[in-house]
Amino acid sequence: MQILCSDHSLCLIRISTWAGSSEVDAQVALPPTWATLKPLNLTSPQFSINNHSNYPYIPVDSVLSQSFAAMHFLALLILFLLSTTTLSQASPTGKSTSINTTAKTTQLNASNLPVGAIITHCTTPGTIALTFDDGPYIYTSQLLGTLAQHGVRATFFLNGHNRGNIYATPDIVQRTLAEGHQLGSHTWDHPSLDTLPYEEIVQQMTILEEAFMRILGFFPTYMRPPFLRHTPVVLGAIADLGYHVIGASVDTKDYENDNPDTNWVSFEKFSREVDAGGTIVLAHDSHQHTVEILVDNMLTDVERGLSAVTVGECLGDPPEYWYRDGR
Question: Which sequence ranges are marked TM in the entry (predicted)?
């Protein structure tokens, strides 16, 4: 067994066994907080979850002397996860076989929406799309309850490791999807993509794809760049990965008004920009007073004449194009 850690708040546990004359390699990705190892700071080569040669190898024997009990527990946990996971299949030759993704890849290509181009407005008349960035977080569950009370669907652009960690709240991710909301990518740990080279932009997306795969069995085809910042390099990388890029025509700037005394400023900005024709709304489920005050006010306002739906719905994109199960 080997433990391979990176500076992206993720460890990969690899366990090799022998079946006949062939070595079978199984692997499970876990947050490093589940282990006793401190993540290593890798700068060259960059971390890639699909390139095992880029990981530093740490023999378990060198770790046992530090914490035998913890590693024994971890080994039992990994064996349990390996017995239940279906995301990696071992072939008779010992190579990992990928999931057949022909159907969903074809569906992605069939979508009429562009990839790698900023989309800021709905195209379906009479619709508005409320979107929430930076979750899952401690307020997401309450927000889901509010949306259910109003009978509306929204879109959530999730991070892997930002204010919360996606591996710590798989139930919230699954609930969000089950209640009819759309999920999108917001990168692994919320960097400003315009400061990163091409390779690191791709890694920010594919590391989060791995998390979605382990929690849901598929990952989104929609994304939003953190801070809405992008460059030709950013959009090129996102296009190469096949993502629809969602911007906003209504920015509540709720992060500037996350208190009861000034939350009305975000609501007034929302109302003005909707009146001016804005239809894709940016807010955050990581802010308490957005969830407790702003959302109710926004929904009460739009219910006078607009239908609050997911981004995919407001763009006329069928739900079967919102996700894919591989590359």
Answer: none
d(CA 290, CA 254): 7
Q: Is the separation of the CB atoms in 218 and 104 below 8 Å?
A: yes
Point out the residues that are catalytic: 133, 284
The token pair that represents 295 in the structure block: 């959302």
Give the span between the Cα atoms of 206 and 240, in whole angstroms.
Answer: 12
Count of helices and strands (H, E) across the chain:
11, 17
pLDDT digits 0-9 by tens, 78-117? 434 443 333 333 332 232 223 233 334 445 557 899 999 9
What is the SS3 string spanning 272-322? HHHHCCCCEEEEECCCHHHHHHHHHHHHHHHCCCCEEECHHHHCCCCHHHC
- Calculate helix-pair angle for 170-178, 198-216, nearest 10 degrees: 80
Which residue from 184, 207, 206, 198 is spatially nearest to 232, judged by alpha carbons?
A: 198
